[in-house]
Specification:
The protein is of the alpha+beta class. It is 20% helix and 30% strand. A hairpin with a 2-residue loop joins strand 22 and strand 23.
Length: 457
């Protein structure tokens, strides 16, 4: 896997994300971004990337703005308000169930178990004036428009000090420093600025607010599959939690010490001893392919203080760092996409072997033995047809129906990798590069859609 870059190159996971945007906060007002979710896609042949972000904000400013840097000029699209709720429902892990009688007096069968910057926008930004014969302005507005209920402007800047001044002149009180802006100016990235009206968000008793904005998708050309993280550092007190859904032709990971392999490999190792039928989803094959690198990986994890404990969420290691975790992974087949249209079941269902009988029936001494015989025959049939049981998950019917809003976004033949990462502020000194999950010539194709006996809650 391209898990090694100097010593090891790996990839990270996250839960609610805060990458891709930074905020300009008003004077004497605070804007924090405690969480953000992001859905990313990449076409390596066309070199086209998209990311959809839904930041969560809290603070006391009356209004503020977001700044989202991208390597090229993006196209903006409004996404369904509950887009990330639908993704969460779609990626619920399944549990293995076996038919069980509640009436039979015998043991049950079964196995155990944008990045953006704080800014307060008091007025709409004015388009840069273009005077005839005037020198080329340091900051230029390339596009202005409306996406959903949000006003946006796409700007480019030649110098960070010029962009800093431009923001001030257009009534954006910026509490950060020029260095974060300069990081992207030097890379010649563009900036999308969006206004947020906090009066539309929920207010707390002390007057502060908390809420999420409508998800917005950014589509742009990019030579690398990259996600802006550095700029978010401004809006972080000490840490932020990120949840990534990544769709690509291959399973994805993060580079270096952010790799989820630090928790995925030990979880597969622990799970392999608990499942006589073998690890599901190709986990055993990946363990075999990765075996030459396991010792190096675990030594690095131990050096960072990452200790895997079965059935528990990862705890902070050295310096408070927390490893990434994979939450769900699958290469989507035709039936996976049919679920969105209601043409394939959302979940399997273990048969009710007691169907047609009640407790009163089995209490009847004249009928009980005949009933037990029927139930036992049903159990035997189900166990013969499905010796490994049924993969079951639950969600409200209306939420399953609403999965139709993912149609067109979730694509057959693509790999969706869901991972979680809590970033400390000092882990946000650069942007994230998303890479194929592989080791040398071996591709990590292992899937994770079934709860393992060692899975964390």
């Amino acid at each position: 896997m391209r898990l090694l870059s100097a010593a090891i190159a790996m990839l990270a996971a996250a839960s609610q994300s805060r990458a891709a945007c930074c905020y300009f906060s008003a004077k004497n007002a605070d804007i924090l971004q405690p969480a953000q979710k992001v859905f990313l896609t990449y076409d390596p042949a066309e070199k086209v990337e998209t990311f959809t972000v839904q930041p969560k904000f809290e603070g006391n400013a009356l209004d503020f703005g977001m700044v989202i840097p991208t390597p090229t000029q993006p196209k903006l699209h409004e996404m369904p308000r509950d887009f990330f709720k639908h993704l969460a429902i779609y990626t619920i892990l399944k549990k293995r169930e076996f038919p069980n009688s509640k009436l039979m007096p015998q043991p049950q069968f079964g196995l155990g178990r944008g990045a953006m910057m704080p800014m307060a926008a008091n007025k709409a930004m004015d388009l840069a004036e273009k005077a005839q014969g005037a020198p080329r302005p340091v900051v230029r507005v390339l596009e202005a428009g409306l996406v959903g209920s949000l006003d946006y402007k796409i700007i480019e800047a030649d110098r960070a000090d010029g962009l800093f001044q431009w923001l001030k002149e257009h009534k954006y009180s910026y509490s950060g420093d020029e260095a974060s802006l300069n990081f992207y100016v030097q890379k010649k990235w563009l900036f999308t600025v969006m206004k947020i009206d906090t009066m539309q968000m929920k207010r707390n008793k002390d007057g502060t607010f908390a809420g999420e904005v409508t998800p917005t998708r950014f589509q742009f050309a990019s030579e690398k599959f990259i996600y802006p993280l550095k700029i978010t550092q401004i809006s972080v007190k000490d840490k932020t939690e990120a949840l990534f859904y990544v769709q690509a032709p291959y399973k994805c990971d993060l580079e270096g010490d952010f790799s989820y392999q630090m928790t995925w490999i030990p979880m597969l190792q622990a799970g392999s001893g608990c499942m006589p039928s073998g690890l599901p989803g190709g986990g055993g094959e990946w363990l075999k392919n990765f075996q030459p690198q396991q010792q190096v990986l675990m030594q690095r994890a131990q050096g960072l203080g990452f200790n895997f404990v079965a059935g528990q969420r990862p705890q902070p290691g050295k310096g408070g760092r927390i490893p990434s975790t994979m939450e769900w992974a699958r290469k989507l087949a035709k039936d996976d996409v049919k679920i969105l249209r209601g043409e394939a079941p959302y979940s399997e269902k273990a048969p009710d072997v007691d169907e047609g009988f009640t407790q009163a029936d089995v209490n009847d001494a004249n009928r009980s033995q005949a009933i037990f015989k029927v139930i036992q025959a049903r159990l035997n049939k189900a166990r013969q047809e499905r010796p490994l049981g049924y993969l079951v998950r639950e969600a409200p019917k209306e939420d399953v129906t609403a999965l139709a809003q993912l149609a067109g976004h979730i694509q057959e033949g693509k790999f969706v990798t869901k991972f979680r990462k809590i970033f400390l502020k000092d882990e946000m000194n650069d942007d994230l590069v998303i890479i194929p999950a592989r080791y040398n010539d071996a591709e990590d194709k292992s899937e994770y859609e079934e709860i393992l006996p060692v899975s964390p809650p």
